[in-house]
Fold this sequence. Notes:
Elements: H1 3-20, E1 34-35, E2 41-43, E3 49-52
Parallel strand pairs: 1-3
Antiparallel strand pairs: 2-3
Amino acid sequence: MTLIPFSVFLIFHVFTFGITEGQSPYNPQDNIALDCGSKGRKTLQSNRTWDGDV
């Protein structure tokens, strides 16, 4: 009786692992950095640009 929940759990994880194994990781098309509450644009020493939302 206790093997049924374990079997369902195991089958679910094997099934989801098989589906997600072949997918490539997410690569965003845009790199957006938002500095909440600030005005204008800031560039840090690492050459990363932050845009204000006000």
